[in-house]
Amino acid sequence: MGIAALTRPVSVSLSACELTHLERQPIDLGLAFQQHAAYCQALAEAGCQVRSMPALPDQPDAVFVEDVAVVLDELAVITRPGAASRRPEAISAAEALAAYRPLETIQTPGTLEGGDVLRLGRNVYVGLSGRSNAAGIAQFQAILELYGYQVIGVPVSGCLHLKSAVTQVAEQLLLGNPAWVAPEVFQGYKWLSVDPSEPYAANCLWVGSERLYPASFPETRARLAAHGLPVHSLDVSELQKAEGALTCCSLIFAQ
Ligand code: CIR
């Protein structure tokens, strides 16, 4: 059994990406390509078999593949992104994932984005955010209940997705920003807060033998190190300007 990581190339139209909480800044596309290549290399070094889905040059946010599907051991759920501009991306993800899992699909009027989904064992937390609505979460719950998962809706505010606010960094430890999500929601887990000077620092990608982590959050990186959790730092400045993070650039699952 190995780990698959599905990715997608940075789109040449990345500068026209969706932005919700950030001001638009010029994006260096060449640098974005380089940073994405280093990310894919880091996934491979962590033990993943990295496979690229086809580029979607006209879909600015297509590199952020996490949002268009949720892949579990038993099935994959193709989402219906809350950002209407991103819905065509889901069709291509469904084509790729059909080779690996039976598929279910979120239907209108539901919206759901994978950035809002944090699986902790058989509990699946879903952010009630600007991108994932109550109807989408209810559909997701109805699907996952059939497979023995418990789906728990979680209010998030101030950030794009639940996983902007919290990710899992060790078996029993979450890294989070308590201004954006309430730590007490996650019963049974310890909580490490991001440094207050780094509100966007909660998104760490723990995969295989590595924790991939943005180079731009040294204070929170020191907090992780103090917990015995070294990270593989990656400069992802150009993806961050597009309001992207590390978990959002891959779909990771057992194969
Ligand atoms: C968007 O607003 O949809 C993209 N510009 C960024 C998506 C980032 N996705 C994620 O963190 N899961």
Describe this structure in words.
The chain has 255 residues and is of the alpha/beta class. The protein has a single domain, classed as 5-stranded Propeller (L-arginine/glycine Amidinotransferase, Chain A), CATH 3.75.10. The strands form five sheets. A three-stranded mixed β-sheet has the order 2-1-15, with helices on one face. The protein is globular. The N and C termini lie close together (6 Å). The site of citrulline has 17 residues, from loops.
In short:
The protein is α/β, with parallel strands linked by helices and 255 residues long. The protein is built from six helices and 15 strands.
Top keywords for this entry?
25% strand; alpha/beta; single chain; L-arginine/glycine Amidinotransferase, Chain A; binds citrulline; 255 residues; 3-stranded mixed β-sheet; 6 helices
| Number of contiguous helices | 6
CATH level-3 fold name: L-arginine/glycine Amidinotransferase, Chain A
Q: Strand percentage, roughly?
A: 15-25%
Radius of gyration equals: 17 Å
Shape: globular
Rounded mean pLDDT score = 98
Q: What is the number of domains?
A: 1
Q: First CA to last CA: what distance? A: 6 Å
Task: Tell me the helix content.
Answer: 10-25%
Structural class: alpha/beta
> Major beta sheet, specifics?
3 strands, mixed
The H/E string reads EHEEEHEEEHEHEEEEEHEHE
